[in-house]
Amino acid sequence: MHDWTRLARSIKDWGRELGFDAIGITGTDLGEAERELNDWLAADCHGEMDYMATHGTKRSRPAELVPGTRAVIAARMNYRPPVAPAASAEVAAISRYALGRDYHKLLRARLQKLADRIVAEVGEFGYRVFTDSAPVMEVALAAKAGLGWRGKHTLLLSRQAGSWFFLGEIYVDLPLPPDAPATDHCGTCRACLDACPTDAFLAPYRLDARRCISYLTIELKGAIPEPLRPLLGNRIYGCDDCQDVCPWNREAPMTREPDFLPRHALDTATLIELFAWDEAEFNEKLAGSAIRRIGHERWLRNIAIALGNAPSLPELIAALEARREDSSALVREHVAWALNQHPHPPAPLPEKGGDGCSRTASAPVR
Hints:
Layout lengths: L3 H14 L4 E5 L4 H12 L8 H4 L7 H4 L5 E8 L14 E2 L8 H20 L4 E4 L7 H7 L4 E2 L5 E2 L7 E8 L18 H5 L5 E3 L2 E2 L5 H7 L15 E3 L3 H4 L26 H5 L3 H7 L9 H15 L4 H9 L6 H12 L9 E3 L5 E3 L6
Parallel strand pairs: 3-10
Antiparallel strand pairs: 1-2, 2-7, 4-7, 5-6, 8-9, 11-12
Helix pairs in contact: 1-5, 12-14
Function: Catalyzes the conversion of epoxyqueuosine (oQ) to queuosine (Q), which is a hypermodified base found in the wobble positions of tRNA(Asp), tRNA(Asn), tRNA(His) and tRNA(Tyr).
Pfam families: Fer4_16, QueG_DUF1730
GO biological process, one term: tRNA queuosine(34) biosynthetic process
């Protein structure tokens, strides 16, 4: 007979050795979360994310997704890079989780190593590893496993790590003892709700994805609704506003994973720089990045909106004009909208005078 309590303690130790910041264990009962999910789907809050409803109760009943599942090992890994919000409206704002390499492969590989370590200890057993890759209710499972609580912004929150972390799971057929679920520590705070640029929160703990900037810039495949475009500001991939204002994130630790640090200066790149990337450059520079999955067309769509929201600078107008006849109808439509946000002719670009001084092209030489 195995000592399952001792094994559970060992799993947590092995997880920390592999770079996870916390490991918790829970059972498979997600009845309350299932009811909340069904209410959310019935209200069409998922928008075009049809996959949220496709798998039915497999999402909320782990043993239906992976027959034989008796427990879930939930893991948490910090990703917060040492990056401040975009300094100006001309700088692209990209959600911090996407600045480095795609987390899916890294977390899956680490979870597989953890599973291999368990196999070495107890012999072959039934399991399956997940990282945002299947119909799994990650936040609900992590909360039941004691890794944090669901904040009013619907993300998992931890008193030690805030919300800047990724989640992963291993469904197992082992009778591991569950940890105590986390308790809610949001109190009366509503900073995240009030900070949302698009008023996407219908109420605490309830998000209308159709208004969420992360949904609009990542999940939505077609045109972004015009009334929401000015509210996106310079955000071209995701949005961190609700996390930036959360008091629990003030002291959240920085990541220890080099792969989660910014690549290709994405934390400081200007909108004009990124808008100039052709498809080959987009695919090359964003290889191994979560951003690549939206494709070049939606990348340009998002940046066009941000350029429409930026100050009316001559070089900005020129960048938009260069894509006025883009081969994509989706891009052309958003470029046209952006140009209409700059109705007045911008001031001419300065040119160098013969004496090395700058002057405007229309200024007389004296």
